[in-house]
Amino acid sequence: MTLADYGWNETLARAFAPHAAAGLEPARVVCELRRNFCAVQMAGGEVLAECGGGFFHHARTPDQFPAVGDWVAVRPRPGETRADLHAVLPRSTKFSRRAAGSEEIEQIVAANVDTVCLVSGLDRNFNPKRIQRFLVAARESGAEAVVILNKADLCADTDAVRREIERLVPGVPVLITSAETRKGLKALTTAFARPGRTLAFVGSSGVGKSTLINALLRDDEALPTGEVREKDSKGRHTTTRRELVLTPSGALVIDTPGMRELQLWGIEDGVEEAFPDIKALALRCRFTDCGHSNEPACAVRAALESGELPALRFSQYQKLQAEKARAAPRLRKPGALASKPGWRKKAEGQQPFRHRLHDAE
């Protein structure tokens, strides 16, 4: 394998030039372990990389730490399968969410992603509103999005469900798949899992993300999978960390832990981009600041009354716009975490631990 297999190109090489002049080598983060440890793929193979003290001095917020998919500058340790991580290259895209907890902190789920695959199971856990919510985060990431309706073998009328989702997310490709029957896998590979492309699979626990990736890898045991609860089709968190793997087709896929609730982060443009039809309708309203409630000559309300705009889609749009308005004043400015909050103290105090590489002590 070469770095080109992992997406390395001339654009990245130019961005890396200052680090190359300093004697550092490029690598891509393939697995997050703890805040200051990650597995990276170098030209010579996979090694364990550690963020040293100098990196902590410059990293002022959690989003500046390496995430799966990042390209980084490292210095290998002579005679070891370890390296010191010195810098993270600028990201072309990033899929983020608000981290759990009381602090307003951005958590990067995957970086430098070409396609975000929004996976939903066609079982009792099927939730169109959740799909729209994930789509907003995908649009904000800068990557293209595709909706994957998995477990087609459990749905009696997949065509009807596809039409429903296509109406709720116009312009977004919708694929019907089944890891059990392998339905839709060829279409997924042909259209999206192409050589050099990076796909991030996101969705709730139990929707079949890891099973789909295993199918793309042609290895049913490559990533751990689990059964879902029969009463509500909710799954356990069988994936506990984000990991990037290379498929036989040449595509790179990132598996992510299931998210039962996606707390949105920094959705300044994501809402408008996820609802382009409503944005276009609003331009036809008489008033530029139309609230789409009781104003005269409201094109959005007229579309609702005629059935052109689904009520569920508009309801979700209003909900996300309200969430965006509430969140905006609370978001921290860059550098606001420089006084060593809890996450930073904990990261600096962690001790090295055994990595999946057998010879990394």
Main attributes of the structure:
single chain; 361 residues; alpha/beta; OB fold (Dihydrolipoamide Acetyltransferase, E2P); Rossmann fold; Ribonucleotide Reductase Protein R1, domain 1; 3 domains; 13 strands; globular; disordered C terminus
What topology does this entry show?
Elements: H1 10-21, E1 25-34, E2 37-42, E3 45-51, H2 53-58, E4 71-76, E5 82-88, E6 94-98, E7 106-111, E8 115-121, H3 128-141, E9 144-150, H4 158-168, E10 174-176, H5 185-191, E11 198-202, H6 209-217, E12 243-246, E13 252-255, H7 270-274, H8 276-282, H9 299-306, H10 311-327, H11 342-348
Parallel strand pairs: 3-5, 8-9, 8-11, 9-10, 11-13
Antiparallel strand pairs: 1-2, 1-4, 2-3, 4-5, 6-7, 12-13
CATH class of the largest domain: Alpha Beta
What is the fourth-level CATH superfamily of the largest domain? P-loop containing nucleotide triphosphate hydrolases
CATH architecture of the largest domain: 3-Layer(aba) Sandwich
Q: Report the uncertain regions.
A: 223-239, 332-341, 343-361
The number of domains: 3
Work out the strand percent: 15-25%
The overall pLDDT average reads 81
Per DSSP, the total helix count is 11
Strand order of the largest sheet: 10-9-8-11-13-12
Largest sheet features: 6 strands, mixed
Shape: globular
What percentage of residues falls in helices of 4 or more residues? 25-40%
CATH topology-level fold name of the largest domain? Rossmann fold
